[in-house]
Specification:
The chain is built from 9 helices and 4 strands, in the order αβαβααβαβαααα. By secondary structure, the protein is an alpha+beta fold. The protein folds into 2 domains: 130 residues, no CATH class; 77 residues, no CATH class. The longest helix is centred in the last third of the chain and has 18 residues. The radius of gyration is 19 Å and the shape is globular.
Length: 230
Amino acid sequence: MSEHSPFPANYLNQAGLNRQHVFTLSELPAEVVATLGDIDGYRQLILIGHAGRLLWECVKASGIEGEHPIDDYSMRTVARWFTEFLPGRRYTLLYPGEAAVGLQQLGKLAGWHHPSPFMIGIDATWGSWFAYRAVVLADTDFLPSPPAERLNPCQTCQEKPCITACPAGALADGSFSLSRCASYRLQPDSVCAYGCLARSACPIGSAYRYDEAQIRHSYSRSLAMLRQYF
């Protein structure tokens, strides 16, 4: 039985990147491997995410600004993690980057991601207040992570406050209507321009809800994309 190196999670956790999952490349579905590019010489894929408010606090404390401060901080943190705790290990950062990595598919394999009516992945512990921050190919030999055994909390939610909280009625027909959502968000003085009322109404993981500055930052990016495409 082969020995596995201990996963040095403390630095990532303290830096706000407090969700990690280690996949063995040879055990990933072929359709996932096909999105990863050249995997020669690598043995594992590491999915890194964040949950709750700590990451945003760390980003602000770092002084990183610009258009993509969270991505820039995440890339810098992962690079330092390898330099200080995994010297000599080869790695390639796929995300953030140009690779067409299926983040939600990896999230499902890790047991992090379940679908919600408002089209954001949901977790029974963290609610929707988590995100994928890095995907790394590495020649590491960590113990592979078991999938998180958590059921979709939406399946047992009776009241479904997210549906009634949406002023655009984008969730009312049993499936998400992007056109209704986009149309409402793009209206002048829309209350949904810089945040999703449906998401905020969800009671799951409400203790981990992002602060208003992080919510506004994230939704300002999606609003800019809506203005470009609609």
